[in-house]
Amino acid sequence: MKNFLYMFSLLVAVTACQSQTKQKATGKVGGPCEGCEAIHEYGDKVLAAIDTLPKFKETEPKLKLTGIVYGADGKTPAEDVILYVYHTNREGIYEKKGDEKGWARRHGHIRGWVKTGKDGRYTIYTFRPASYPNRNEPEHIHVTVKEPEKNEYYIDDFLFDDDPLLTDDKRAKLKGRGGQGVFLPQPKNGILTIERNIILGKNIPNYH
User: Number of folded domains in the chain?
Assistant: First the structure.
């Protein structure tokens, strides 16, 4: 009887382990991601490695986001990776024009897409957003990633090191998805610049 119970317990443990392994292998890369499907809403636009978001010319302070997207090894530039970014205006509102469709009704029209070439580089011209009105969320720029043959997933927002709302407690809760996301913009050629290299899969659940 003891042998039977032992074998039964062993069988249950093995089955549970196999089930967990299967779930991990088939789980969605990055886990739940509300609104990540917006990365596909660029329509018939031909994506390039450089994009300029709406209201860049007339809004200060201007901001340049640039860097290289690397594969999981952190060394090899990743080609054909789409980045989707969106953020608030200078009043902290996801500004809309009134004719938005899809996720633009939530994300607003200050958004854009880039697609890396063989060198893995991307550049986005925009402006520094404001924090949400009457809330304590730091200023941030959302980023979603879509690499070939994997589902889309989000990485850590672009955050600003000099933002007083980015407290030590909030910094401690950052996951480092895709690598470091906190930067102090540096003036280069008359425009504030953040240079951020992104590592695909870094700290991303179910990445395999």
Answer: 1
Q: What is the pLDDT of residue 13?
A: 42
Domain that holds residue 74: 46-199
CB-based contacts of 50: which residues, under 8 Å, 6+ apart? 114, 122, 123, 124, 125
Q: Is residue 165 part of a domain?
A: yes
Phi, psi of 82 (to 5 degrees): -95, 135
Who has greater pLDDT, 13 or 124?
124
How far apart (Å, rounded) are the C-alpha atoms in residues 124 and 24?
Answer: 34
**Does the residue 28 lie in any domain?**
no
**Residue 53 near residue 65, CB atoms below 8 Å:** no
- Give the DSSP H/E element, type plus range, for residue 23: helix 2-26
Residue 24 has pLDDT above 80, yes or no: no
Dihedral-angle region of residue 18 (phi above 0 means left; psi in -120 to 50 means alpha; beta otherwise): alpha
| Eight-class DSSP state of 33 | -
Within a domain: residue 191? yes
92 assigned to some structural domain: yes
d(CA 147, CA 14): 34
CATH of the domain at 192: 2.60.130.10
